[in-house]
Request: fold
Amino acid sequence: MALRSTGKPPSAASGPNPKGRRWINRFISSDGFEENAYLFGDAASRECVLIDPGASAERVIAYVESEDLSVMAILATHAHIDHVVSAPILSRRFGTPFLVHAQDEGLLDGLAQQAASFGYKLMEKVKADGFFQEGTVFHVGSLSLQVLHTPGHTPGSSCFMSGGDLFTGDTLFAGSIGRTDFPGGSTSEMTRSLKRLASLPEALAIYPGHEGESTIGEEKATNPFLLSLYNAQDHG
Ligand SMILES: [Zn+2]
Ligand SMILES: [Zn+2]
Reply:
């Protein structure tokens, strides 16, 4: 089953949930990229944001409508095709803006070329309705979601943090990190961004753009890319 719940669904969130009223639902695309789109929301107000609108639009729409949710914004951790391809259709459907970091606007402009390089044809141009930056805070019911600009995978790559949750896009994965050899990628910026993420609380749960969840502490202890950062630091 492609739709997996990683938190309390809205209708069940009144139980003893240590994370309070927040819930997260993950939708994995079946287009070959296996990209994770997440709905992050407040169970009480039924408001949510959609993070990374990949090729799972129909399932996201069905879920939002069946749970009677209000999507307040559509956010992209970065402007790679697998994370933004459904932004236009979902933005229209939910009547809500699609936002990215300004430094990824160039990638959006070149999306057709990006799609072609993966053997895909872009069906519709993707344009941002607005931009966020480091420190931007989105209010989702009683919750707030803060932008951390973490360039390296792309110039505008960003993470979104709320309470004990961090959406890491293609910056940090469970056991790996995002590539830096695509256009706009930077190894030195990635190193700085990873050091910043590694300085966050170890209990912070991470929700990456591909594959499964982890925590900052688990990644610091086992992720070879983070371990090598620390080794490099230890030896000056
Ligand atoms: Zn990417
Ligand atoms: Zn990706």
About this structure: The radius of gyration is 17 Å. Residues 35, 80, 82-83, 170, 209-210 surround zinc ion (ligand 2) (CB under 6 Å). The helical segments are 57-66, 81-84, 87-94, 105-109, 111-117, 187-198, 216-222, 224-234.
